[in-house]
Amino acid sequence: MRDRLRRALALPREGAAVFEQALLVARRAARPREDGVRRLRPTGDRTVLFVHGFMAAGPVFEPMRAHVERTLGVATIDFTYGPMARFEDVAERFARLADRHAARGPIDLVGHSLGGLIARWYLQELGGARHTRRLVTLATPHAGTTAARIAPVPLARALRPGSDVIVRLEDTRARAHDVAHTAIVAGADRMITPPTSASALADAEVHWFDELGHNELLYDRGVYARVVAALARPINASET
After folding, report:
1. Given CA atoms 2, 219, 53, 43 in this order, what sign does their dihedral have?
2. Does residue 239 sit within a domain?
3. Residue 130: inside a domain, yes or no?
């Protein structure tokens, strides 16, 4: 009963978050193409890459990216993919982008929902762990989501419990053991069912936001603070 009430109360806020996403995507479309433009001159050679979820686009991250840039003084870039592609094809495209930036210096990754699985595939299956220091996942269904069963497209199939992608990522988790993992969970999530799937990441630092919905997570100041803390966490003595 309490969980149902929490999710019901989150519905208006979740609707507002979806509307915010639509505005951000429309504003980007109305401007000259600037995906991944660096707004700040970074203090070093570090880049944070953001990967959106299913049926979204890179601009949904703009407020969070701006906050990360202002707070940490790092460069950021977003990555956009379409909903009809195969999971492995999207991951390969993302790997090419990430590897280009990794050639200039270390990278960190932030993935929302399906984007977190794409980021993990890059780390564990495409050699990205050797370039990456930190991964933050936001409402990512590490154990799959039953909600994906109603969508027949290939990307949605990757999100289902027991999918080849989910099983492979669980089996090869050790390949990214040197990457600091943080998992942020939306307790009122209606897209990741059950919401506990977003916490099912071995050896990750897990943070719950009980009252937040799936997309609302992207615009919450408390979540921003957690993301910044995760990205600022020292990995070795050279970063202290």
Report:
1. negative
2. no
3. yes
